[in-house]
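Bench log, entry 3. Co-assembly request; chain sequences pasted below exactly as received.
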Amino acid sequence: MTVKIAVSGKGGTGKTTLAGLLIANLLKTGKKPVLAIDADANATLHETLGVVPETTIGDLRETTRKNIDQIPTGVPKETYLELKVQEAVTEGDGFDLLVMGRPEGSGCYCYVNSVLRKYIDVLADNYPFVVMDNEAGMEHLSRRTSRGADILLVCSDPTVRGVMTAGRIAEMASEEDMNVGRMYLVIGRVPAGAVGLSPAVQDAVARTGLELIGTVPYDAGVEAVDIAGGAFVDLPADSPAMAAAAEILERIT
Ligand SMILES: Nc1ncnc2c1ncn2[C@@H]1O[C@H](COP(=O)(O)OP(=O)(O)O)[C@@H](O)[C@H]1O
Ligand SMILES: [Mg+2]
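Structure output for the full assembly:
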């Protein structure tokens, strides 16, 4: 059984950070291999993982579309694409990374897209955990992957407006028949030393109807790793953000 965790929310709320922290925790607790999927066109998840991807599914889609006639004869197109999806995987220590890359342009990509999606799903089934980082909004969850997430974590910053936005994103996710299993709210970048969320933010959380599954404190260590270009697995054991992500994982899995 594969547990697929997707992270969504508006820009700058700490989605990529949360996805990276979740993956680092899964690796540290031996819950591997993890398949990390970066579904943000402006891919940054690899930076939290300390690997450099060479290619993306978007590049693969473009080159296949342009050279569809040059696929070696005798090789079924599907088999060819399945191999290409496997080649697009960047291998890390305990995890693999798939970067979706640029979004589909205009023109008919139907065949190539549907085959690519199928083999991304086939690939994902080989992992106990899949963690997907999305770009702001929800459209990519439906458009880029054929199957919904088991758990959708909607990120917000600790503001009323942020939480209301998260509520709308969650609403869209349930309306659009995305096949999302469970949905939770995560509030990230909570100022260090804050005794909790403000009453106004707590009220906003209640209005969304979402369960707040955890908060992630602002962590200078995370910022330091980001500045140094390191990986989150190298964060110190007492990192508050890592501990917060560990608690979230505990609650959702
Ligand atoms: N808990 C945290 N502690 C410190 N810095 C954080 C934390 N969460 C996010 N950041 C910083 O905030 C910025 C935006 O975070 P990011 O995860 O890239 O957001 P998103 O993916 O939602 O756009 C990054 O520079 C990141 O380092
Ligand atoms: Mg991001």
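Residues 199 and 205 are 10 Å apart (CA to CA). The chain is about 45% helix and 20% strand.
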